[in-house]
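Deviation from plan, reported transparently: magnesium ion complex.
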Amino acid sequence: MKEDNIDATQYVAEILSPHQQILSEYHKLLRAEEIGIVSSVDRGTVSVTGLPNVCLDELIEFSHGSFGLAFNLDRDEVGVILLDQSSELESGDDALRTYRQCDVPVGEELLGRVIDPLGRPKDRRGPLQTSLRRPVESPAPPIINRAPVTVPLQTGLKVVDALIPIGRGQRELILGDRQTGKTSIAVDTIINQRDNNIICIYCAIAQRASAVANVIDRLEKNQALDYSVVLIAEGDSPPGLQFIAPYAATAIGEYFMEQGRDVLIVYDDLTAHARAYRELSLLLRRPPGREAFPGDIFFVHSRLLERSTHLREELGGGSLTALPIAETEAQNVAAYIPTNLISITDGQVYLSPDLYQKGILPAVDVGKSVSRVGGKTQLPAYRRVAGDLRLYYSQFGELEAFSRFSTRLDEETRRTLNRGRRVREILKQPEGSPLAVTSQIASLLAVTQGVLDKVELEKIAILEPILHDAVFSQLPEIYLGIERGEELTSVDLETLISTLQRSVPREFITL
Ligand SMILES: Nc1ncnc2c1ncn2[C@@H]1O[C@H](COP(=O)(O)OP(=O)(O)O)[C@@H](O)[C@H]1O
Ligand SMILES: [Mg+2]
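Because the crystal trials were delayed, the predicted structure below was used instead.
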């Protein structure tokens, strides 16, 4: 009986062995695929069943080639946000796991290009020639990898560089109502980086197509596109695509930062980004909170902006400076998204519609603006000149408002008002005319040292370029010294002031 048994087993093994060999080879080729099925389609999101092991933020591919991100992982259903238009999707379609995270192309080839958040070209310059890719989401650099912010990022705008200076690696919010010049400040800052070796990324989220076309046009005309990347998520693109746009822009910036480069990113704007995220969350039936935004909107923005930093020297010393833009409604800076962003960033430039209407452009409200880290980064020469301008300027504002009620002013007050109005005049700057540091110093010195006290307000704008030319042509040594970051000696200062005084043509002195 026993022998029979052995025989039988041997017999079976003999018969099976070739099959087993084939099977074992075959198994190597086999892979268990999870194929989910679309159970319902919304505008912007879909529900998928049958993907029990899918990971958070995993890319999902649908049967006709479009993509989505796994966003809501429930027990028997996955909420997917769409990165392409949903018009072709139907319930019953297949949804495949891709086992990878959403990523974007990165590299030098992106400079000068206009792309969408998935890296698809939106200009007519053909496909991107880069094989490098980076995940859209990645953790912010840990504290031990970060260095203090020490180098200034010159915006070229006197009012910002003098009163609200920004450093490389800082996050400075640009805040204000619509049509107050927010985009304008950001674009001027990009244009001013032409000789500063900073790579710029302009990320437009749900902006009017005409406004974006205008920005691209201005960058192109000022040869700023050569060192910039423009990333666009249009207002009519799926909210999922708008949502990943700033993260994709940051990933592109991080690549350059890790090469030791200095990078500037403009997010225009994060209130539109918050709205896209709110739309997704409501479609996915997440509970709404304040202003119907989901509870994690703070984390959405803080994890984005924490990725900006200045890396330590051992890690290449690169930096990522962020200029997020937030749009307020009726000057309400206490709304949910603006307050969140104010608390996440290292300061804000507040633009006031009242100043805009009075023609004080850029319409920066100095009293409501602040830069929490940039002050230490100002060039020494600049700090010496702009030192107490801020305090002086805000005192002037108060005095001017107060003096409206009194008819008789003492000499001292009149002099302060006279000087203050000239400071305000010199801080005005038309769009698209960023100024070099030395020219800015010349302007500020002229006004703080009283060179302009006897010049009519209306003539200051005409006189300013004359003074810049004088310093440039007569004092090249000082000019270059300032550019190199050297301190101004007292002798230099005196030379500068006397040169400025001598350079005011007689016909300008009328008072
Ligand atoms: N410094 C400036 N000088 C002249 N015009 C300006 C200045 N800044 C902004 N503008 C104009 O103001 C308008 C609104 O500016 P924009 O930057 O688009 O505002 P926002 O982005 O806040 O909506 C634009 O027409 C722009 O040309
Ligand atoms: Mg704008």
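The domain at 35-101 is CATH 2.40.30.20 (Elongation Factor Tu (Ef-tu); domain 3). We consider this an acceptable substitute for the interim report.
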